[in-house]
Specification:
By secondary structure, the protein is α/β, with parallel strands linked by helices. 34% of the residues lie in helices and 27% in strands. The protein has two domains: 132 residues, 3-Layer(bba) Sandwich (FAD/NAD(P)-binding domain), CATH 3.50.50.60; 187 residues, 3-Layer(bba) Sandwich (FAD/NAD(P)-binding domain). Strand 15 and strand 16 form a beta hairpin.
Length: 384
Amino acid sequence: MKTVVVIGCGFAGIAAIKLLSRYPQDISLIVIDKNTANSFLPLLPDLVGRDLAENNITYPIDTLSHSYRFRFINSLVTDVDLTAKRVFTASTEIPYDYLLIASGSETNFYGNDAASAGAMKLDTAHDVQKIRQALQQSAYTHLIIAGGGYTGIEMAAGLRRYCSKHRQNPDITIVERADRILGPLPEWMRTYVHNNLRDLRIDVLTKSVITQINDQHIVVNNAKTYTRALLIWAAGVQTAEYIQKLPVPKNPQGRLISDRYLQVEKSCFAAGDAALFLWKNTPLRMSVQFALTQGECAAKNILRAVQARPLITFKPKDPGYIIPLANNRSCGSVLGLSMRGMLPTMLHFLLCLYYLYGIKNKCRLLIELIRSEFKQKDREVKNS
């Protein structure tokens, strides 16, 4: 029997765990994660915008461990020795025969200690709950989002919906270093989102950086000062520190460059946001669909390695992507079709309900979403 260690219990990790757990006669499965619960990341902005309950988009890893019969170690990985085949945590050392690195990504503050200390981040449901608690104080006249990518845009729209519901009217500003938001997306989509943000009274500052953070004072471009400001950092991600230290090829974010089998080296595989896989000479973007399929493929190849069978090549299929916005003016490209408005919003939530863990979570979330929409419609009628 071989020992397989999976680092990370996100989309890629769980996809691999489900498959690996079917072969208890071949594999002793150990899962390591610094969190006690899985956070359903695509719904983090909705946790604010639609006032979803935190416990409906999280799932205890202990419960998963009972369902899929793995040993769970709740600890932070500090180091990995690929030669000695050892994973080190703050409290123990775990030997392995095969390793899957699927620990995702985390907020990248780019060495900005002031941002790290003074900004809210968006890594888990608990992080977003802290943002909601801060908003409940009604102490802010400015909400600043650093980063004009998917997450920053979605969070900005969610903040406006939250503030409208709770009769707050802070200025909301997105600060983006590049010359445009959503840089790699098609022009029509960037224009559609930009117009939507304008209608939501969300300012967008491009070619701009946050140059000073001092308590509730935020300075942009060494020129404009925002007082009584809450800073939310969505300006980029990186892999965990232990990955950064590994002596293998990585990109600037620290994503592990894998081969066509998702191998980093002979006994180590990578999947999800922790992996960088080149398809037609282009790195795959970070997405739920790619994380799931990579997790499954990596698990299959670990099983094949255990059974001394040839490995299979990972062949990604891209169904598209959606940018869900809290006012339901979403957009996306699904199966090659351009979509705008309520339809991509509905597809977003249908996919979330499908992939969410736990039947109780699915049912409670569906009820919450329906209730949230009815309340929003009622407010719109009263305000019209």
